[in-house]
Design goal:
Blueprint: H1 16-34, H2 36-39, H3 43-60, E1 68-71, E2 74-77, H4 87-104, H5 108-119, H6 124-141, H7 144-161, H8 168-182, H9 191-200, H10 204-229, H11 238-248, H12 260-278, H13 286-289, H14 291-303, H15 310-313, H16 319-337, H17 340-352, H18 355-373, H19 376-388, H20 400-411, H21 421-432, H22 439-463
Antiparallel strand pairs: 1-2
């Protein structure tokens, strides 16, 4: 990952005791992030406290470089923590959040969901397929949490109108698992994708073309498995089909559309946004400004329509996530100067030394297990930082090790209810509607899906992406 003015100096000789001290701080940070809910502390606060402490300790131990960076051939004095932050990543998240929230006000996403519900004619299997596809697409275009909220809410309404409350638990869990599959589809579908993809210099189009076939196969396999495990079957009699169809026909997809002009503007701008992001790496002038510029540009353009109340849309920005990222980048930068990443890189080097077949498969499983018990963002950021410095992997965007981290960090979130924000949303919706499921019960139901998806990812990575 290359931030503006990233310091390039090699880590000087650092005493082992100092390295171990900062390594302990990194482990503590990851542990506290995993206990975020229990601590009742936002991740931005946790990362911010560690950033402040690491900077002060690093300066006291004299391991930090002077705050001079080179931009455009000129030396500029900046505090060491400013060039440590990858501003392109923050711009992508901020701009995309603004854009998606404004587009959602047009009713476009709800319209798509209701149209698909009516198209299913109330058949449970057809409904599962349509909602599964919708979950994957929404997760790719929006984000996992937004997709789960939209699809989950509509699922509850649909199944209750159809009198099929007995299928609600299965539908919501399957949708939760599919959000992390859909999060693999594009470079901006999930935060780990953004971190690892930018570090590996993988273009939007290349990412989509390589991840797309896996997402399609994993989605089909997950829907098939979900139908089998949760007893979701087709309607068998004409009377059942007629009743379900009449109930679904009561849905009105136009209820959520306040203005046809805004609806079509949203649809056109969404297509243009996807095209602009996909071609950012090859478009003159834009390729120098980066995807962050594209995301911010579209967000600002859409704000023009709501210029008098623009401040209301700033609430859609996940400031906690942005603050967390800023703190995390600073912490990782200090860890780099404390030779912690070099130490962790030694362990990763042993995995890499096993070769692209065994090594990348082991790294995928390791990243998945780590991401299942803590936030996948710091895991992806740390591994991306280490891989970037590897002499062979760092300059090779086609290396399977990059994809091992991408697949592992995303799919590991399906192993436990705390492994992904979207699965937490699914659990919240499940509990809200009086359905009981414990931590152990979730793991038991999730394990077949996670195992299937991880095995498929490993085979796909080794057979297709090598």
């Amino acid at each position: 990952m290359v931030a503006i003015g990233t310091l390039q100096e090699a880590a000087s000789a650092v005493p082992l005791a100092v390295t171990l001290l900062f390594f302990g701080l990194l482990v503590l940070l990851v542990t506290l992030l995993a206990l975020e809910e229990q601590l009742r502390a936002k991740k931005s606060v946790i990362a911010g406290v560690f950033a402040i402490g690491c900077l002060l300790l690093g300066e006291a131990l004299e391991i930090l470089p002077p705050g001079t960076v080179t931009i455009g051939g000129e030396s500029i004095d900046l505090p060491v923590y400013i060039p440590a932050i990858d501003w392109n990543v923050l711009a992508i998240i901020m701009g995309s959040s603004l854009f998606v929230d404004i587009i959602s006000k047009s009713g476009l996403f709800t319209w798509i969901a209701i149209v698909l519900t009516k198209k299913s004619r109330g058949d449970p299997v057809a409904l599962l397929v349509y909602y599964g596809v919708m979950t994957v697409v929404f997760s790719a275009v929006l984000n996992n949490v937004t997709a789960m909220i939209i699809v989950g809410s509509l699922t509850v309404v649909s199944l209750k109108r159809l009198g099929r409350d007995d299928l609600l638990l299965g539908f919501l869990l399957i949708e939760g698992f599919l959000t992390n599959v859909g999060g693999l589809l594009t470079l901006i579908s999930s935060v780990p994708n953004i971190i690892v993809g930018t570090a590996a210099d993988i273009s939007f189009l290349t990412f989509f073309l390589k991840a797309g076939p896996y997402v399609l196969v994993a989605m089909i396999a997950s829907l098939w498995l979900g139908g089998r495990l949760f007893g979701i079957e087709r309607l068998t009699t004409d009377e059942e089909r007629d009743t379900a169809r009449n109930l679904v026909d009561g849905f009105d997809e136009n209820d959520s559309i306040e203005s046809s002009w805004a609806f079509w503007l949203g649809a056109v701008m969404l297509v243009l946004f996807i095209v602009a992001i996909a071609t950012a790496s090859v478009t003159p002038y834009i390729r120098e400004l980066g995807m962050g510029y594209v995301a911010m540009g579209f967000g600002i353009i859409m704000l023009v329509r709501y210029k008098s109340v623009a401040d209301k849309f700033y609430q859609a920005i996940d400031w906690d996530l942005l603050g967390f990222f800023a703190g995390l980048f600073v912490v990782l930068n200090v860890m780099e100067h404390a030779a912690v990443l070099e130490l962790a890189g030694g362990g990763l080097a042993r995995i890499v030394a096993l070769g692209e077949t065994v090594g990348s498969a082991l790294l995928l499983v390791t990243a998945a297990l780590a991401s299942s018990v803590t936030d996948n963002i710091p895991i992806a950021a740390m591994l991306a930082k280490i891989l970037s410095g590897h002499p062979e992997i760092g300059g090779d965007p086609a290396s399977p090790f990059w994809w091992a981290v991408i697949f592992g960090a995303n799919l590991g979130g399906n192993l436990t209810p705390i492994g992904s924000a979207s699965t937490l949303v699914a659990i919240t919706i499940i509990h809200k509607h009086g359905l009981a499921i414990s931590f152990g019960g979730f793991v038991k139901k999730a394990l077949p899906f996670a195992a299937l998806q991880i095995v498929l990812a490993t085979v796909y990575m080794l057979a297709v992406l090598r």
